[in-house]
Each structure stands twice: as C-alpha cells, then as structure tokens.
Write a structure and sequence with these properties.
Radius of gyration: 22 Å
Strand order of the largest sheet: 1-7-6-5-4-2-3
Structural class: alpha/beta
Bound molecules: pyridoxal-5'-phosphate
Number of strands: 12
Helix content: 40-55%
CATH topology of the largest domain: Aspartate Aminotransferase, domain 2
Strand content: 5-15%
Largest sheet: 7 strands, mixed
CATH architecture of the largest domain: 3-Layer(aba) Sandwich
CATH superfamily of the largest domain: Type I PLP-dependent aspartate aminotransferase-like (Major domain)
Shape: globular
C-alpha cells in the first residue's frame, strides 16, 4: 500500500526528497520507516481472487519471485532518482546486465560495447552472448568514430560505462545517444560510478540505465544487488525475463538499498570532495608520474565531465614512479585503506588493477587500455581526508 497522499505530492520533487520518500509502502500499522517484507508467498482473499491474481486481471502479490513490496519500493525509488518510468531490482549488477541483454537481444543481433567496461561485463558479452548468437564488437570508449564504424544493420544495442574504471575516462552520453537513436539501437549505460546523484543518463538520451547496487547505492559494502531503469515498456520485458528466469533481488537487500538511497547524494558529494582533494595533492607528489581523475582541470575528460556530471565521484588512480614492485610496495604500506577490489564503500579501498581487476587481460590489452603495472586505484571513502592523506604518505615513505 503506497501512501497516496505522499506520492501525489512527489511529482517534480527534488532528488533529495525523492531519495527519502519515493516508493514508501506502508502496511497500515502506522510504521514511519520502511518495513522488510520477508515472505516468499502471499495469501489470497478467496479462490476467485487467487484466480484473478494468477491471470493478472487483479493486482496484488502472488509470489516474491514476481513481486515483493520491499523490492517494489526500491524499484520505485531508483526509478524516481534516475528519472525513469520504471525499474527492476536484480540479484546483482551482473544480473541487471544479463537480464537487460536476455530480455532485449535475440540471436542474430549485434552489440557495440565499450572496451573499457567492468571486466565481468566483457566476459558476459564475449563468452555468453556470443554463445547464443549475439555478435559483439568492442571499441575504445573515447573514439566516437570507432563506435560509428562498428555499427551494422543488425546493431541492437550500444553499451557504455562512464566514467571508466580505473582511468576515469568520460564518454559523451548525448553523442552516443544520438548515434544509437539514428541507428535504431538502444543505448544502455552502466551508471555505477556516478549514480543518479551525479549523472542521469536517461536525461541525456540513454534508453536504459543499469546499476550494481552493491557499490554506491548501498554505500556501506554490505549487500549484492542491481537495478535496471528505463521506460515502462522496456522494463516490462526485463521484468518478464526476471520472473521467468529468477535472478531477483532479495527483500532484505532491497531494504538495505532503500536505506542507502536516503543518503546517496550526501555521500556522493563527500566521496567527490575528498577524491578531488587527494587527486590534487597526489599531482604534487614527486613520486607520482600521473593522476587520473576527471575533476582535475588537465584531465582530458574534465570539460565533458563538467557538462555531464554534477561532481566527479570517488574513484581515482595514479601511476607511481617505477613498476609493479613499487606499486605493490606502496599498497602494502598503507594501513587505513582496505586492500580490496570493491568500491562505493564508506571505507576507502586500494587495489593494483594490473594484477587484480584487470589481471585477466593480456599484457597487450592492458597496454592498449592504458593500465600500467605502476598504476594504483583508490576508491575514496568517507574517512577524514587528512587521515587518508597521511595513509598515502605511508605509501610514499615506503618508496624511499
Ligand atoms: C561491480 C560492478 C558491476 C557488477 O556488479 P555486481 O553487483 O558485482 O554483480 C558492474 N558494473 C560496474 C561498473 C561495477 O563496478
């Protein structure tokens, strides 16, 4: 039971208001905050009601693989924040991407995908979509000509992630939207790094946004989940795949993500502020060769990021002088930052991309993607920035 009085007043409300109030499902017990609906099935009023709900001629829940009020609340809230008509909660970020592909692609279709997407996304396309007869071309994120040249008559989808991981390259979403539209293809954007607090791809012409809710939407590194957002018609297709094939979001996780969304903008601003401060400081360190963060005025994506994003996010990377050994020495010397490949957490994380997140690429692929052996990635958390700077100092001290 959605609170009608409240939801009616939310038309055109600001992101901060929607983040706290959109999609609340009250039970009639008078509870103020969102309950968790931990139930797998639902009781029908009578036999006729059961028949009507199964036939879809009456509303109401049937079974939690189909609908669950906690998941529905999360879906309504993330849809409101992204400015989409509808959303679908999924078991993980990869389940969001898989569900989008399975629902909207068919054998014989062609996909153009940025080369610089999450590694598992590359595997999903090259190992599984190809296996089912969907051809995939990978193109460098920034080369619009390469995207254009890769298009074919059967291109059904363009898939992009911006800013990229770990070099923070920024793709022009309005230009890619136009390219997709002119060719009758869908533009799908993985908005994991910015979240709707910093970037709303649908407003720039994208058709679908996918999320790993595991990252900033949760924001505290507790749950794995995902979301797909877009038009009601497209989401109906994705929902049908999900109900049939099962990678749905759990009610408990949906409740955690609902809590996360309430503080999303505040957190994204704090992550962005500290990341910019550290990136600027890192640029001045003699043992740093190069810093990659779109908030820096000399980053090639800076101008575009200023137009397309509200801030620059929490992920930055930098090259230390030397090679793999120096990068590893640096990482092993920090004591506050967690050595883990995750990001989007209140706790700052540090990782060596070349030997972990991008370790499955060949040396030549890494070279082409600009991921050197001396590159270190930091996903800046919510600790005090002075303590993080002191921690990075420990890294530099270890380099002698
Ligand atoms: C983590 C991540 C994913 C995958 O999400 P899971 O929740 O781990 O399945 C997809 N895209 C990006 C950009 C990610 O960082």
């Amino acid at each position: 039971m959605t609170d009608e009085k409240e939801s009616g007043a939310l038309q055109g409300a600001h992101l901060d208001t929607l983040a706290v109030r959109a999609g609340i499902a009250r039970t009639g017990e008078g509870e103020h905050s969102e309950p968790i609906f931990l139930t797998s099935s639902y009781v029908f009023d009578n036999a006729a009601d059961a028949a009507a709900r199964f036939a879809g001629t009456a509303g109401g829940n049937v079974y939690s693989r189909y609908t669950n009020p906690s998941v529905r609340s999360f879906e309504q809230r993330i849809a409101a924040l992204e400015g989409g008509e509808s959303a679908v909660g999924t078991a993980s970020g990869m389940a969001a991407i898989l569900s989008t592909c399975m629902a909207l692609l068919k054998r014989g279709d062609h996909v153009v995908c940025s080369r610089d997407v999450f590694g598992t996304t590359v595997n999903l396309f090259s190992r599984y979509m190809e296996k089912f007869g969907v051809e995939v071309s990978f193109v460098p994120l920034l080369q619009l000509d390469a995207w254009r040249d890769a298009l074919r008559a059967n291109t059904a989808m363009l898939f992009v992630e911006t800013p990229s991981n770990p070099l923070c390259e920024v793709a022009d979403l309005a230009a890619l939207s136009a390219l997709a539209r002119d060719n009758g293809a869908l533009l799908v954007v993985d908005n994991c790094f910015c979240t709707p607090a910093l970037q709303t791809p649908l407003a720039l012409g994208a058709d679908i946004v996918v999320h790993s809710a595991t990252k900033y939407l949760d924001g505290q590194g507790r749950c794995v989940g995902g979301a797909v957002v877009g038009s009601a018609a497209l989401m109906e297709e994705v929902m049908t795949f999900l109900r049939t094939c099962g990678p749905t979001m759990s009610a408990f996780n949906a409740w955690v993500f609902l809590k996360g969304l309430e503080t999303l903008r505040l957190r994204m601003e704090a992550h962005s502020r500290s990341a910019l401060e550290l990136a600027t400081w890192l640029q001045q360190q003699p043992a740093v060769e190069q810093v990659f963060y779109a908030g820096l005025p000399d980053h090639p994506g800076h101008e575009l990021a200023c137009r397309q994003q509200r801030a620059f996010g929490g992920v930055l990377s930098f090259k230390v002088q030397g090679g793999r050994q120096q990068a590893w020495d640096f990482i092993d010397a920090v004591r506050i930052m967690s050595l883990t490949a995750n990001l989007g957490d209140a706790k700052t994380t540090i990782v060596h991309p070349a030997s972990t997140t991008h370790g499955r690429l060949t040396a030549q692929q890494r070279e082409e993607a600009g991921i050197g052996d001396n590159l270190v990635r930091v996903a800046v958390g919510l600790e005090h920035v002075d303590d993080l700077r002191a921690d990075l100092q420990r890294g530099f001290a270890a380099l002698g």
